[in-house]
Amino acid sequence: MGDPSPEINGVRSAFMSELLELKNHLRRKAYDARNAQPNKDEVSRLAMAKLVELPEYRDAQTVLWYLDCRSELRTRQALPAALAAGKRIVVPYCTTDENGDNRLALWLLESIDEMVVGKWNILEPPRDRWAEPAKSIAPEDLDFVMVPGVGFDRSGGRMGNGQGYYDRLLQSVRLNCSLVAPCYECQLMDEIAMGPHDVFMDKVVTEASVYQGKGRVYQGKGRG
Known about the structure:
Elements: H1 6-36, H2 40-51, H3 55-59, E1 62-64, H4 79-84, E2 88-96, E3 102-109, E4 116-117, E5 123-124, E6 144-146, E7 151-153, E8 158-159, H5 165-170, E9 178-182, E10 188-189, E11 203-205, E12 210-212, H6 215-218
Parallel strand pairs: 1-2, 1-6, 6-9, 7-10, 9-11
Antiparallel strand pairs: 2-3, 4-5, 7-8, 11-12
């Protein structure tokens, strides 16, 4: 088959422009709601207590654990217990690939004291240790990914910061790796506008409930 016609390309371009505009509107709304969330520490504790009791988490051996920053749901308060529980806890840090595109690299965490303040004031491993082979984890090794985001819906739709870090990472994890998003209930929207490369979560966990997401089965990717 040949290249798409100019008309088809025009429709695609218009669709993506409208999607981007809608996402930017929803992102601003979600940022405001997240920033205004009262009692963040207590609300986060309730959500994280639900998350660590999930069967998917309890069965996982290698867990990707995001380290909260700014107004994100607090995950660090539950980290000491996770480290003591015998799981392999992995944290992401921002870097670039050989083409200069944004990507997340993965670090095997043994103590929170290993971390330093890095890009965007997010905790990350010291740059002079990034090349340590014993600390590097491949996305394919992950059993469970804790996915941050700006906004979500109750079907597992996710909206990130717009940088594409997690979008790229989630394309590389195994199909039987659980994708679970902890967030405040106030971050939930009726429906997140999802593009062709966006990934639905398996579950969304808030202080109030656990929502069953569509996951990648819905997107025709199956589970292996």
